[in-house]
TrEMBL record:
GO cellular component: membrane
Species name: Rhodopirellula sallentina SM41
Highest taxon of source: Bacteria
InterPro entries: NAD(P)-bd_dom_sf, SDR_fam
Pfam families: adh_short (PF00106)
Transmembrane annotation, as ranges: none
Signal peptide region: none
Record protein name field: Short-chain dehydrogenase/reductase SDR
Length: 259
């Protein structure tokens, strides 16, 4: 039986490309997001081109009940998930004290809570069957604080720490655990978060297809952390040598926190 891969945030950007890559690799896919039309269109094209099954499950992952409802739907359809790709996420540029309370809480629900709960719900059956694993989408933002985008940066620091901890816990089980950390990438994220208007973001952006391919290859090879693009790797490596008090001031300047 072919493996099944569930991808959250499959309706656009990196998640959409990851869904196509897993399907091209022969996996059945479960596509999760809020935008039903986009998911249905993607499922049709995947089934036509890749001859695998593509199931659409519509969910708003900021809803505290979403993960349990999603898991109930998987059980009802007798779908066993082998690979979980926690990709859904969003950011918001602006001062913590000025951005909407609800938007920032929803961000934590999607980027952190849903990712954690879904992993916890799906992991036992992966361990039972001894195959599959978890690919979490973090960000190079995980490596320093992000003034004017503090909650987003902190959420991605959580994703990295959680993924690394889980990887060690699962050592020897045969399961893969990988954190993909994109830098600026051409998707809906730039416009939605406000990051797209920053020069440092738009001039550096990689394509979603390149980023997804790096993540897919790194996950298949069971790499711990995958940072697509040499410029992003250089940035993260050099960040490690600079005191955090300085890196946060640099990010603050780049993200307009002093304006
Ligand atoms: N693009 C970048 O520069 C960049 C850099 C570093 C990390 N990342 C990370 O990459 C991941 C994918 O983002 P992307 O760049 O591909 O952006 P994107 O094109 O905006 O895609 C985001 C995906 O998340 C889904 N999503 C957002 N809120 C959701 C919710 N409440 N419930 C369910 N699904 C939700 C969206 O689907 P619906 O709107 O249909 O629900 C969409 O499919 C995110 O975790 C992001 O933080 C992106």
């Amino acid at each position: 039986m072919m493996p099944t891969t569930l991808i959250t945030g499959a309706s656009s950007g990196i998640g959409r490309d990851l869904a196509q890559l897993f399907a091209k690799g022969g996996d059945d896919v479960v596509l999760v997001a809020r935008s039903e039309d986009k998911l249905v269109e993607l499922a049709r094209s995947i089934e036509d081109e890749c001859h695998v099954s593509a199931t659409v499950l519509v969910a708003d992952l900021s809803d505290p009940n979403a993960i349990d409802q999603l898991c109930n739907q998987l059980n009802e359809r007798n779908i066993h998930v082998d690979n979980l790709v926690n990709n859904a996420g969003f950011g918001a540029l602006g001062k913590f004290s000025e951005l909407s309370v609800d938007r920032q809480t929803d961000m934590l629900m999607v980027n952190v809570v849903a990712l954690t709960r879904l992993t916890r719900r799906l992991l036992p059956s992966m361990l039972e069957r001894g195959r599959g694993g978890v690919l979490n989408i973090g960000s190079i933002a995980a490596h320093q604080a992000g003034p004017n985008m503090s909650v987003y940066y902190a959420s991605k620091a959580y994703v990295l720490s959680f993924t690394e901890g889980l990887r060690e816990e699962l050592h020897g089980t045969g399961l893969h655990v990988t954190c993909l950390e994109p830098g600026p990438t051409e998707t809906g994220f730039g416009e939605d978060s406000g990051m797209g208007r920053l020069k440092s973001f738009s001039t550096q952006a990689m394509s979603a297809a390149q980023v997804a391919q790096s993540g897919y290859d790194g996950y298949q090879a069971n790499e711990d952390v995958v940072i697509p693009g040499w410029k992003n790797r250089l940035l993260v490596t050099s960040t490690g040598f600079i005191p955090r008090g300085i890196t946060r001031k640099v990010v603050a300047k780049m993200q307009g926190a002093y304006e």
